[in-house]
């Protein structure tokens, strides 16, 4: 079955960096776009970033542009999120999620179907 | 302030029918399909409805979705205690070039 397992979260000081990982299994990873979505404590879902199946196209929410970088290794079935210059407002559970399609530009965007269990990032001094 | 607007709360008694609305604009719901997600307490979100009205395998047919113009709705019929959860709508926004979520609706089964 499709499975996504995030790791890499933790407690980090403001201004520092982390790299989140998401190990995928049970599907052809290289055929699907992948997302990161976060949820601050007691708040709703906030979409963060999307990468297309081939890694050539990336999209970000404005609040993380220039600080977060999404990437993928299709040979290792792994999705990454490099988070730099962390702020208190980045404190959240970070979920990786599989897209229903390839997520390439110019084509219909399908959105998230399967989600991981999340990894918690806490930014605090 | 979320791009998509949902009521913060909804409620119903077991067996009742409840609807949750999601209002957007021409750049998101008006020109793209809508997905709905269910998040049970302490768990990851789960896809409930995709492409406005399609149910993934395993989702009971008590859950249905619809879309008209720049608005969408999720209906839950035959409400059950286990339906108590947060529900989110989502759509791609052509102008922002990003996915947008509603603020979420907390459903209480009385």
Topology:
The complex is a heterodimer of chains A (125) and B (110).
Chain A (H helix, E strand, L loop, with lengths): L2 E5 L2 E3 L5 E8 L8 E6 L5 E7 L6 E3 L7 E6 L4 E6 L8 E8 L12 E4 L3 E5 L2
Parallel strand pairs in A: 2-11
Antiparallel strand pairs in A: 1-3, 3-8, 4-5, 4-9, 5-6, 7-8, 9-10, 9-11
Chain B lengths: L8 E4 L5 E6 L10 E6 L6 E4 L13 E6 L2 E6 L8 E9 L4 E4 L3 E5 L1
Parallel strand pairs in B: 1-9
Antiparallel strand pairs in B: 2-6, 3-4, 3-7, 5-6, 7-8, 7-9
Question: SSE order of chain A, as H and E?
Answer: EEEEEEEEEEE
Which percent bin holds the helix content of chain B? under 10%
Distance between the terminal alpha carbons of chain B, to the nearest Å?
A: 28 Å
Secondary structure: number of strands of chain B: 9
Secondary structure: helix percent of chain A = under 10%
Biggest sheet overview of chain A = 7 strands, mixed
Determine the structural class of chain B based on helices, strands and strand pairing: mainly beta
Strand content of chain A: over 45%
How many beta strands in the DSSP annotation of chain A?
11
Distance linking N and C termini of chain A:
40 Å
Mean pLDDT of chain B: 97
> What's the SSE pattern of chain B?
EEEEEEEEE
Largest interface, with Cβ-Cβ < 8 Å? Answer: A-B, 25 and 27 residues
Strand content of chain B: over 45%
Overall shape of chain A: it is globular
User: Any idea what the shape of chain B is?
Assistant: globular
What gyration radius of chain B follows from the Cα positions, in whole Å?
A: 13 Å
What is the CA-atom radius of gyration of chain A, in angstroms?
A: 14 Å
Q: Give the mean pLDDT of chain A.
A: 97
The number of distinct helices of chain B, counting runs of at least 4 residues, comes to 0
